[in-house]
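Hi R.,

Here's the chain you asked about this morning:
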Amino acid sequence: MNICGTNDMKKHADIRQSIINSLNSRFCLPSDNLPTGIDGGFWGVNSPIDALDIVYLVYILETEYDIFFSGIDFDDPSFFTMEGLTELIMQKLQPESMKARM
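And the predicted structure, written out as tokens:
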């Protein structure tokens, strides 16, 4: 594996852990009960997270990573999964020149 791939994997893991830590510490959601796969949404009917919590989590992530989520991001079902949210943040952290190549 090349160095760039290793750095991306570490960054991915760090972002994911940051989301888990925020959900755990700020919303009292134990990390062992969070769905972490691509299909495991952590919002919904049975979720202890309400709309105000989502707004606050968005604020935390936007502030921590100096990014901005758009309405399009919120319409994407992957935003509501741990894996999807992690990938979305990764994309937003890429330089504009890298995004144009994708």
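The chain has a mean pLDDT of 78.

Let me know if you need anything else.
M.
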